[in-house]
Design goal:
There is one protein chain. By secondary structure, the chain is mainly alpha-helical. The protein is built from nine helices and three strands, in the order ααααααβββααα. It has a three-stranded antiparallel beta sheet with strand order 2-1-3, with helices on both faces. A hairpin with a 2-residue loop joins strand 1 and strand 2. It is globular, with a radius of gyration of 21 Å.
């Protein structure tokens, strides 16, 4: 074997190894929307939400929504909008790629902000008073919210929204949210729970009610209070 033949084989093997190592590795789609880091370590919500679920949920699912949203808005006026502006423009005539991925990006960014390590407990302040006034008690509110979350057939979200000055519990399918014109019940979300199976299946399998019960232990009520104050 000549030296040149050896180098060709070695170089080809190196290229193959590089291709194997990068196969399936996520790449950031260029565009106006980006995937922000989680506001906490991926393991910070354990034992209620496990590290692997958080890593896959954020690093793969959310990232895919961002990448596909950038493709969907490329060359359009929506590429100049904020994600808040964009989702409010989504209606029944919007392309599925825009609706699904725009909603997916907004919903997940919102979802991460609503959780924190060593959180949970009960709300305080104005939002606590509003919950008690609307639902009778915090426990009753949790029951009604859990009904919306478990009752959502297939994939979707449960929400606590502000409609005018009133609190309402609602749910949406897929990656829709109450800001969209397509929402059956519109309002400003101040709390949201992802009930897609990828949010809980690794740890809870098909036991969605167990996931919902555990999730209350990581709800960031300080953030909910902040969002409520802005909404009213």
């Amino acid at each position: 074997m000549t030296r040149n033949e050896f180098l060709q084989i070695a170089f080809g093997s190196a290229l193959s190894l590089t291709a194997f190592r990068t196969l399936g590795r996520p790449t950031q789609q260029s565009g106006p929307f980006t995937l922000a880091p989680l506001p906490f370590d991926a393991a910070a919500l354990e034992p209620h939400i496990d590290r692997q679920t958080m890593e896959i949920h954020h690093g793969r699912h959310h990232k895919t929504y961002v990448d596909n949203l950038n493709k969907a808005v490329a060359g359009t006026d929506m590429a100049k909008m904020s994600i808040d502006e964009l989702v409010k423009k989504i209606d029944g005539k919007s392309p599925a790629a825009l609706r699904n991925n725009g909603g997916g990006h907004w919903n997940h960014t919102f979802f991460w902000s609503l959780m924190a390590p060593k959180a949970g407990g009960q709300p305080k302040g104005r939002v606590a008073a509003a919950i008690n006034q609307k639902f009778g008690s915090f426990d009753k509110f949790k029951e009604e919210f859990a009904k919306a979350a478990t009752g959502r057939f297939g994939s979707g979200w449960a929400w606590l929204i502000v409609d005018g000055k009133n609190l309402e519990i609602t749910s949406t399918p897929n990656q829709d949210n109450p800001l969209m014109a397509v929402a059956e019940k519109k309002g400003t979300p101040i709390l949201g729970l992802d009930v897609w199976e990828h949010a809980y299946y690794l740890k809870y399998q098909n036991k969605r009610p167990d996931y919902i019960t555990a999730w209350w232990n990581v709800v960031n009520w300080d953030k909910v209070e902040e969002l409520y104050g802005k909404a009213v």
